[in-house]
TrEMBL record:
SUPFAM superfamilies: TPR-like
TM region positions: 7-22, 28-54
Superkingdom of this protein's organism: Bacteria
Name of the protein in question: DUF2892 domain-containing protein
Keywords, alphabetical: Membrane, Transmembrane, Transmembrane helix
Length: 186
């Protein structure tokens, strides 16, 4: 449902509640006011994003994809902050299967502005993994240091250490590492 449709729906419900208050039917007026608050709540918290966060909490990736696919046009259906989390969840969804597409989504999420530092740290960590997979070690080091700064709770400490160990194993001098994905960016 578009953002403007939610506001119009809420407005019509409030007009109906005013009508019932005018006719001294207070119970229906109060019920309609309560129902009128739902579209306003879903204006600020998109229902499909709420479902997607619930699915990712349960580690149900098929359900996550299904919930995100219900959002057909994010520019019309979501606010700016919601679009950041839409792209963030898309990036997480594609992080295991298509790292290039995951990188695009994570970069969009950072550009739209993720709110929480922990989410920014996860996005930067995924971008560092992508940079490392294409052989850009300096950019990966920079992104890892930014991710470490953003990880205030230390939840990503183990993953950052694993990536640093992988970076030490890479031999990116004059010799190219044979394990780097070749022809990845076609």
């Amino acid at each position: 449902m578009k953002k403007s449709t939610k506001i119009l729906f809420s407005l019509f419900i409030f007009i109906g509640s005013i009508y019932f208050f005018w006719n001294k039917n207070y119970l229906l007026g109060i019920i309609l006011i309560i129902f009128g608050l739902f579209p306003i709540f879903f204006y600020f918290r998109n229902e499909f994003l709420l479902l997607a966060f619930f699915k990712i909490k349960k580690k149900n990736m098929k359900g996550l994809k299904k919930s995100l696919d219900c959002i057909k046009n994010p520019k019309l259906q979501l606010t700016k902050n919601q679009m950041a989390y839409y792209y963030f969840l898309r990036g997480i969804l594609y992080s295991e299967s298509n790292i290039h597409q995951s990188e695009n989504y994570m970069q969009k999420a950072i550009d739209f502005g993720l709110k929480f530092k922990q989410n920014i740290a996860i996005a930067k960590l995924n971008l560092a993994i992508y940079s490392l997979s294409i052989g850009n070690k300096k950019k990966a080091e920079l992104l890892l240091s930014e991710a470490k700064k953003m990880d205030i709770r230390g939840l990503l400490h183990d993953q950052i250490q694993i990536i640093k160990i992988q970076m030490k194993k890479m031999n990116l001098g004059d010799k190219q590492n044979p394990y780097i994905r070749k022809n990845y960016l076609k």
